[in-house]
């Protein structure tokens, strides 16, 4: 079978490059459909790949043409074909993204969240394709260790996670992150779309929070806001990662 | 005169789009060499542009061909031609970037720093072109309100700013940002290159700091690290921005 160029409608996605493919195999081997590689792959890496694929019973196939076709301008010699899996969130802290629209940003946010001990991300549709190869790439594989779930609305999310305290991040909030002294666990940090933020209706939800900044800028970008929030919440919450 | 496509070697850069051009004119009009616009520009915006250009005595010229040629795929109807100016840093807090290599990242970092009241950025060469149109764009104009200076080495920087306490951010540091209780002002927050971080020699400088994160990721990306650091330093330092 020849795999076509990636598009959102496909039921599988592509994982480009050796490092990411190993992340896939080691963390979510059951989602790996097949690994294809080019004859330019270094023998040492191929040996390692064969061992890991054998261990997890994932098909491995030499296919220069398809690898070349899919890898675009990037010089990549290994491509993983993987299922787009959404996992149930557990009861610890969540990040909730409402209508995120940028694939690269989303990947970086997944990685940052993982770095601050957030292991569950809820996303409200419509949203960017979570399994866009750009998202996978920007997450540096963290997406394979994260529980990610899609919801059609806030109401649907709340039906499943009523015990979480919502902290919507919005410019109109009264409480500033800088003044926050305690956090209620489990919490859900809520962020809006990159361009539009959260709608005003979120002011009625949980404890809205603003990250105070100077008037020299209109707003912090999404990635910055999420970074600062997950840092501060894990700090206030006393989560240490030694 | 027809302006050529941007390249690093040019003595001027381009500011694309109405919003950014107004940022340039309002904050650094003396660096604006000329504004060119296309006949597609909305009359209302043109009127406003004429008023501001007249106020600051900046030449304004209709040039459909050149605007079209320079604006690439972006649909932009106004382009500012600006000098690449480096301004002396003042004695308040600094951000020091050692060999940054990504133009877009740098722009976002400039904007974030400005959002947390850092108005001085020192950059040690070699580094990405600070006036790359991508940097200007990503800074959303904050670059025109920031003092940015280039230095050939840390030694050169220190000769001019010996009163600043250096806080190099590095994984090998002993003190964690999460435990930090006070900061010595004026401070300089120091960050290395996106891929390689700071060399070990920076462990001998000032007070090295690590932002603790989980072992699930190798490191935080530069933009995340800077965001968290400037947030925490202005918070500990008691800087409020009402």
What would your notes on this structure say?
- Two copies of one chain form a homodimer.
- Chain A folds into two domains: 12-83, 60s Ribosomal Protein L30, Chain: A (2-Layer Sandwich), CATH 3.30.1330; 94-236, 3-Layer(aba) Sandwich (Alpha/beta knot).
- In chain A, 30% of the residues lie in helices and 20% in strands.
- Chain A is built from seven helices and eleven strands.
- A five-stranded parallel sheet of chain A has the order 7-6-5-10-8.
- In chain A, helix 2 (43-56) links the parallel strand 2 and strand 3.
- Chain A is elongated, with a radius of gyration of 20 Å.
- The mean pLDDT of chain A is 95.
- The A-B interface holds A 108, 111-112, 114-117, 140, 142, 145, 178, 211-218, 220-221, 223-224, 227-228, 231-232, 235, 240-242 and B 108, 111-112, 114-117, 140, 142, 145, 178, 211-218, 220-221, 223-224, 227-228, 231-232, 235, 240-242.
